[in-house]
Write the structure tokens for this entry.
Amino acid sequence: MWSAAAGGGSALGPLLGGFLLEHFWWGSVFLINVPVMVMLVVGGLLLLPESRDPHPGRFDLISAVLSLTAIMPIVYGIKHLAQFGADPTGFVTLLVGVVLALVFVHRQRHLHTPLIDIDLFRNRAFTGSVLANFIAMFALVGLLYFYSQYLQLARGFTPLQAGMAELPTTVASVAVVFLVTRVLARLGEGHTIGFGLVLAALGLAGVAVAEGASSFMWLAMALIPVGLGVGLSQTVATDAIVSAVPAHNAGAASAISETSYERGAALGIAILGSLVNVVYRVNLTPGAVGADKQDAVSDYLASALHVLDADSPAAQMARDAFTSGMQVTASVAALITTAAAVIAWRLVPSARR
């Protein structure tokens, strides 16, 4: 049910966002969340039973600040290095982020009530499930974040059409609810997570090939195993994470699970997005446009199409370069997801239910 709800929300979001972008001001995609959040807060207060640790300990504000300030320099440093090349600013900010992350981990080890209980990672099943979740989100979100841009900029889809084109992935992830119990009974947790990630990796490899095809049908077919695989692996991994720890640590385990999603998504967008841009720039033909347009064309496909005639050879060259970037990124995402499958297969126990 959790998986179906998450998949259903993921399917509705791009469709609603595409509709709003085609009919209203672009800021409407943010404002639409205000009434949704109001309903969520009011509904939660009225409907959700209270559940809390009777002895929660003290909340460590310094750890919360360290957590935030560690990830921001890392993301900025990666993006800066990809855009401007190897320069001191990129390396220094990256180093600052890594040092802050190490300070955060060190602090958690010595706090009586840590923000994140590092000792939970001594459990192989817990660690394998968290890593599988992190890497899967890294690959999936890092790719899909730019997938909508690829559909609109390289294939000429409208925002609403792009939202509909993502339906094969999200509908497939919802369909997992009909399969997960049967697969889990046959394979056990670890092997089910690994199987799901292998399925997603095969789909991502298919996406890499299909992005260069003229027909969208091949791309839609490649997205189905991506949705099935990620939905299957995430559903079982979340269960495995919470089940791997004692009951009184379930809240902490759930929080780490959600954190792995968010960190994986943030770093996936930063790293894979940077890879898209690097390959895009490498595939641009030198001297294909005038000096007055070179900076805009080299910056990104959106800025290139803003200054170029949409039907010109230079615009087509830019689209092809961006498509090449997406194909390389999808291939890298497939390899990363395969690595996550191996981790889950080897670390997470697979006792059959």
